[in-house]
Each structure stands twice: as C-alpha cells, then as structure tokens.
C-alpha cells in the first residue's frame, strides 16, 4: 500500500484529519525521566482520534542521547495503523541524505518525513524510491519568515513555493514509489497560496497555539489526504484537561 493510501484509510477510519503533534518539553512535565510516561499517555489517549502522529526531532534531540532513546522506544510502541510523520526538516547533499533516508525509513521505519527542499531535486532523490513511504517538502511554512523566500514572486509570476511543487511533478514523472506532499502552514494558507497548491497530501501545521484559521481551508475540493497538525493545543494547553478530551475536541473540528 502506498503512503497516501495508508493515510487516506486512517483519515476515513477516524473520520477526521487530525495529526497529533508530539513535541515533548521536559521542563513542563517534571524532567526528562518523566517524558516516557508523558508520551505513553499522550499516544495512548489520542490514538483513537489520530489520523497521524507527528513527532518533531528537535524536541528529542534537545534531550541528548536519552532523547533519541526515548524517541526510539516511543516509535517501537506506536500503534501500527496510525501513520507516523517524523518532522525532521532535513536537507543536505544527496550522499548524506542517503543516510538520513536509511535512518528514518529503514531503521526507525517511520511512514513519512519532512524535508527542506532548498538543496534541490538531487537532495530529495535518496528519499524517493521507498515503497509505502512519504515525504513532505516545506512549501509555505507557518512562520512569518515564509514571506522571505517561499512567498516571493518570480519574474514569470510564479511564487518560489511553486518551484518546490516542480520537484514533486518530477518525482511523479519518474514514478517515485515514495509519495510527495507539502507542508503548508495554516497561518499562511491564503487563497492566493491554496489556489496554487497541487492536489497532493498536505501537512498543515499552525492550528491551536499559532492561531491559524480553519476557515481558510473550507470549500477547496481537494481530494488528497491532507492532515492538520495540533501539538501544544493537545499536549500543553489547559493542562488540567486530559489529552483525550482535547484531542476529541480538535477531532470534532477537523471531522470529514
Ligand atoms: O511550517 C511549519 C512546519 C512545521 N511546524 C511544526 O509543527 C508543530 C506545530 O506545533 P504547535 O504547538 O501546534 O504550534 C511544531 O512541531 C513545529 O515545529 C510548524 O509549526 N510550522
């Protein structure tokens, strides 16, 4: 089964496009020693609502070697039916990317990863021929700085993020086994952006703590399995409520 099919199935099974972000902050959960239990509860309580899980490497790397062990343990215990998108945003020359691809797709066996496309097509090639896997290229990120490059207009009237889409078009033409989608931040998902974004799987961060407006996605007629990520809005918002309770609320807002 291709990555996009697995994700589509999960979206249909859960009835919503909720991607549960996993960004553990040890300082908010009583230190690194409490993080494994925090993650077990977060994953356990939200799995039934999750179309996907998205751990962000930064939060695990910040805990040092123990953080990588915690990530590995968590990945090993993830429910197999929920796709895992590793938010790594990697970018390097192709030779080095081969090793990132091996690490994420072979060793950790995650379903998809985020990549920074700035180094061009040969930098994403090592990720392209993996059965059942997906990559999300940063196209229009959710930060204000996305205006600095991604939303600049070229002389021919296209935006820079449209060049990112060209990489996906090429991957499809070359019959990539890996599905290629895009990261589009909800906070910058204007109709000008969305009108130009291909019908390929979108990973959409920016809901909850970053204040993105879901209405901007309405009535688009897209068919690809898009998912909308919520991290702090489940893990660290209203700490007196359970993860399950908060996930259920986001799930209702994102229901099909
Ligand atoms: O454009 C982007 C790309 C990635 N992210 C990541 O998504 C989550 C968002 O967390 P919240 O707590 O829901 O704001 C986090 O891991 C970011 O690094 C993004 O926000 N924007």
Automatic annotation (TrEMBL):
UniProt-recorded Gene Ontology molecular function terms: orotidine-5'-phosphate decarboxylase activity
Recorded metabolic or biological pathway in which this protein acts: Pyrimidine metabolism; UMP biosynthesis via de novo pathway; UMP from orotate: step 2/2
Classification via SMART domains: OMPdecase (SM00934)
Orotidine 5'-phosphate decarboxylase domain segment(s): 17-247
Cross-referenced InterPro entries: Aldolase_TIM (IPR013785), OMPdecase_type-2 (IPR011995), OMPdeCOase_dom (IPR001754), RibuloseP-bd_barrel (IPR011060)
Keywords: Decarboxylase, Lyase, Pyrimidine biosynthesis
Pfam families: OMPdecase
GO biological process terms, semicolon-separated: 'de novo' pyrimidine nucleobase biosynthetic process; 'de novo' UMP biosynthetic process
EC number, UniProt record: 4.1.1.23
Domain of life of the organism encoding this protein: Bacteria
EC class of the enzyme, as a word: lyase
Similarity annotation: Belongs to the OMP decarboxylase family. Type 2 subfamily.
Matches recorded under PANTHER family: OROTIDINE 5'-PHOSPHATE DECARBOXYLASE
Name the record gives this protein: Orotidine-5'-phosphate decarboxylase
Organism annotation: Persicirhabdus sediminis
Gene for this chain: pyrF
């Amino acid at each position: 089964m291709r990555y996009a099919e697995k994700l589509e199935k999960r979206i249909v099974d859960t009835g919503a496009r909720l991607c549960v972000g996993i960004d553990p902050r040890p300082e908010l959960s009583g230190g690194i020693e409490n993080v494994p239990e925090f993650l077990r509860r977060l994953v356990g309580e939200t799995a039934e609502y999750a179309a996907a899980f998205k751990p962000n490497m930064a939060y695990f790397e910040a805990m040092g070697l123990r953080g990588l062990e915690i990530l590995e343990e968590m990945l090993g215990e993830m429910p197999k039916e929920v796709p895992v998108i590793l938010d790594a945003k990697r970018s390097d020359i192709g030779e080095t990317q081969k090793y990132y691809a091996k690490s994420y797709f072979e060793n950790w066996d995650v379903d998809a990863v985020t990549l920074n496309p700035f180094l061009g097509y040969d930098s994403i090639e090592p990720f392209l021929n993996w059965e059942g896997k997906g990559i999300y290229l940063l196209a229009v990120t959710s930060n204000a700085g996305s205006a600095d490059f991604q939303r600049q207009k070229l002389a021919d009237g296209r935006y820079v993020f449209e060049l990112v889409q060209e990489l996906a078009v090429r991957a499809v033409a070359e019959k990539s086994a890996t599905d290629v989608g895009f990261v589009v931040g909800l906070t910058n998902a204007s109709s000008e952006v969305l009108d130009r974004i291909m019908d390929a799987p979108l990973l959409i961060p920016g809901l909850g703590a970053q204040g993105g407006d879901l209405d901007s996605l309405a009535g688009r007629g897209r068919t690809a399995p898009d998912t909308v990520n919520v991290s702090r809005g489940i893990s660290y918002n209203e700490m007196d409520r359970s993860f399950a309770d908060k996930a259920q609320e986001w799930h209702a807002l994102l229901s099909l």
